[in-house]
From TrEMBL:
This is Pirin. It holds the Pfam family Pirin. PANTHER family: PIRIN, PIRIN-RELATED. The lineage of its organism: Bacteria, Pseudomonadati, Bacteroidota, Flavobacteriia, Flavobacteriales. It comes from Flagellimonas olearia. Residues 202-304 form the Pirin C-terminal domain. Belongs to the pirin family. It comes from the Bacteria. InterPro entries: Pirin, Pirin_C_dom, Pirin_N_dom, RmlC-like_jellyroll, RmlC_Cupin_sf. Residues 62-140 form the Pirin N-terminal domain.
Length: 335
């Protein structure tokens, strides 16, 4: 059998991805206690580059937030965002009138399609203890035929997401099928909606001193395993340290031998779309002309405007997890 490892690479910011994925970032922030208004004590902000705070040497960052960490309103077109919040909370608001608070394992799936604005803020809800946050944001491309579909907002609540437990491993099946356990349905116009595209998003925890085997996929599928927390693993006789990504041969099973410290992984897999990609910030199309068109349309229409009082909109501090959909329907998870 050949070595299933095609190559490895260090995990930077953002992480390197393969078609059909465009982008993946991992946020791990040890946010302090809240100040009662869902932000950090203003004294802690002295000396920070407020509005553009991405300093990796700090324990936590404000990102583009001024008083509350996060990403105030900004546009997207031509792709999807999959936001996995393992710890902490994210407050979502968008130009469709949709909103939500999700976290502690929930996943939001948003199809930008022809255009949407949204904000993603990280409210510090606890004033008597720290507010740790762990979040992945994954950008999944849309094929040319779907770039102008209607925007769509979907919540995958952690109570409903399948988790497979086997031989000292836990596999959270966010997208795809793991050994016969299917994920919840993705957004309807997604590249992941067709099972033949073999899109998979799995968050995997393997206990220390454990051997775990990933099933193989079809030839032509791109698959990348991100080893983001732990010490070291072995694949055959090849040692891989944490904070490395691993491009894998899809046609082979992959056996991981985990050492003395448990290991955390994110798997991104899928058949490539195989179309030209033109990117400019939050717009992903097929040509530069389409990028220019997207910029002009956003300047004219603001993709529907902004129906919320603030660009960094957050929800009531005492509110639990919820989702308000564009049609006005409301799901309350914590009451």
């Amino acid at each position: 059998m050949n070595n299933p490892v095609l190559h490895t690479f260090p995990l930077g910011f953002p992480w390197h991805t393969q078609d059909p994925f465009l982008f993946c970032v991992y946020h791990l922030d040890h946010f302090p206690k809240g100040n009662g208004e869902m932000g950090p004590d203003p004294e802690l902000l002295r000396g920070r580059n407020i509005g553009n705070d991405f300093d990796p040497t700090q324990k936590w960052r404000m990102y583009h937030g001024n008083t509350i960490p996060g990403f105030p309103y900004h546009p997207h077109r031509g792709f999807e965002t999959i936001t996995v919040v393992n710890k902490g909370y994210c407050d979502h608001s968008d130009s469709l009138g949709a909103a939500g608070r999700f976290g502690e394992g929930d996943v939001q799936w948003m199809t930008a399609g022809r255009g949407v604005q949204h904000s993603e803020m990280f409210p510090l809800l606890h004033d008597d203890t720290d507010n740790p946050m762990e979040l992945f944001q994954i950008w999944l491309n849309l094929p040319k035929a779907s770039k102008f579909v209607d925007p769509h907002f979907k919540m995958l609540w952690h109570e409903d997401i399948p988790v497979v437990k086997e031989n000292g491993a836990q596999i959270k099946v966010i997208a795809g099928d793991y050994k016969g356990t299917p994920a919840l349905s993705p957004a309807p116009d997604s590249w992941a909606a067709n099972p033949e595209n073999e899109v998979a998003v799995w968050n995997i925890l393997v206990e220390a001193d454990t051997q775990f085997t990933l099933p193989k996929a079809s030839i032509g599928t791109n698959r990348t395993l991100y080893f983001y927390e732990g010490s070291e693993i072995f694949i055959g006789d090849r040692k891989v340290n944490s904070k490395f990504g691993i491009a894998l041969d899809p046609t082979q099973e992959v056996t991981l031998k985990v050492g003395e410290e448990k290991a955390h992984f994110l798997m991104l897999q899928g058949k490539p779309i195989g179309e030209p990609v033109a990117k400019y910030g939050p717009f992903v199309m097929n040509t530069q002309e389409e990028i220019q068109q997207a910029m002009e349309e956003y300047q004219l229409t603001q993709f529907g405007g902004w129906p919320w009082p603030y660009p960094d909109n957050v929800h009531d501090k005492d509110r639990g997890r919820f989702a308000l959909y564009p049609d006005g329907s409301l799901v309350e998870k914590d009451s």
